[in-house]
Every structure is written in C-alpha cells, then in structure tokens.
Specification:
Elements (H helix, E strand, L loop, with lengths): L1 H36 L28 H36 L4 H9 L2 H24 L18 H25 L10 H8 L1 H35 L1 H15 L10 H19 L3 H20 L5
Helix pairs in contact: 2-3, 2-4, 2-7, 4-7, 5-9, 5-10, 6-7, 7-8, 7-10, 8-9, 9-10
Amino acid sequence: MCTKLLNTYSVYNNFKTEIAAVSWQGLELKIAHQKINDGEAMPTQISNQNTTNKPHELGQDHALSAKHAVLFFVLFLFFQFFFNFVLFFPLGVYGGNQVHLGHMNPSEMQQFLAQFNFPIGIFSSIASATIIFLMTKSILRESISDKTFASLGWKKASLAHTFLGLLVGVFLAAVMILIITPAFPLVDGQELGANGTASAAGGWQRFYFAVFALLVAPLIEEFLFRGVLFTGISNTYGVYVSAIIVSLLFVAIHIPEAIYYWHILIGISMLSIATILFRIKTNSLFPAIAVHFGYNLLVVITVYTGFHVH
C-alpha cells in the first residue's frame, strides 16, 4: 500500500513539474512577443524559434499597402494642384488687372504667366514630394539611416547596373529623337505642351525646364512611382500587377504634355517599361533613376544644341 502511494505521489510530482515547465515556457513566449510589440526585441531573440533576419525583398515590407500607396499618390497630385493654385492665383489677378487697365493684352498676359510655370512647378513638386516622403516615413516608422526606405528601393545598386541604366535611358531618347520624331514631324505653328513651350522659348524658361528635367523629375517621379506606388501595390497584389498599374499611371500622368503631340507617349512608354524592369531586376531605385536621368539628359542636350533630323 505504501509503495502504491509513493508511486502515485511520484507521478503527481512529475506531472506537476511538466505543467510548471510548460507554463513557464508559455510565459517566456508571451513576454518575448510583448517585447517585440514594444520594439524591445527582435524575433530572433525568442527561444526555440527558427527565424532569421532577411534583407528587404520586393513586396516583403507589408507596412506599406496598396491603400497607402494610392492615397499618397492622390495626395501628391492634390498638393501639387494646391501649391500651383496658391502661387498662380495672385499672378493671375495681377495679370488680369493689367489687361483691364490696358497695360497688357491677353497674349502678353499669357507670356507673363508662362515664365512662372517651371519655377512654380519645381517648388510645388519638391514641396509635395517632401510631404509624401514624411507621410511614408510615418508609416514605416524608422529613420532613413535605419534603412526605412530599403523596401522602397532606396538602397545601393551595383555601379554596373546604374551605368547600364544611364546608357539605356540615353538609347531610348535617341530612338525617340532620331526615329520616332522624324516619322511624325511637327507642323508649322503646332501647339506644344508646357515642356515644349519652355524649350522653344529659350532663356530662363529653358533653363528651368533643364533643371526640372535633370534634377527634379528623375528623383521625385521614381521615388513616387517605382518607389512608393510600386512597393505598396506589390505588397497587396503582387509584383507583376503592380508593374502594369504603375507603368500605366506613369504614362497617364504625362498625357497633358502629349495633348498636342501624342507621339511623345511612345517615348514615355519606353521609359516607363525600362525603369520598372530595372526596379524589379535590381530591387533598387538608383538604376531606374539613372534611366530617367539619361533619357532626359539627351533631350535637354538636343534642346540646347538645336539638333533635329530633317
């Protein structure tokens, strides 16, 4: 009888010890998960967990969703419109008053306003992009030094890929200038978009166009389209769906420039395809920026040299 009691007591003690061990392990896991939520520990610090730190890959950072990306894109367009309106409104009032007083005719007023197109456009683009940059940063919740924007492609690429991107951009612009434009030549007196008008005007307008084309557009447009939009939509719908949507949006946003000369969209489409392919291939924005810069560089050189194919 005593032997049975001792055996029963031994089994009970073993069972109680196992229960305590399981409870303690559960408590450790709960504390570890709580530390992760509080930003005090990494998943690799949890015992018995087979987790590894992996570099950012396409679509891996799910903090930025398609909803966020599309919202930021719409807000970027809204802020651009807002800044343009705020800055152009007093100029328009002044010009209208000058026409009313007989100091200007309507044509002179249009020329007066046209000289402010690119300075205001540069400011509104930079201001709008800065706001979107800060909003994106608030979603990702880290500083840029901690590689917050690595998932957006804001990380180093090989020099070979970057240089190849530059060459591809120049090549695509050459195709547009040497083949497509001569095939669909401009007619005398044909109206042009904002870029074409500034290029033809010369002087400061042409200079502002060059600054926008070389320093502003490649950085801001690649960050917005191949960075924020591409990453957010990829996280929700996949890389290839995102590539198609982003490429179409990039072409669509340039339609106002192509109203009077739709063949520009051929060059824009080639540029859009090249930049998204480099973004996917290298997982970095810098080769895509190089493509964009190379394309615009040859366009600017052509404008300043007055080169054209007869």
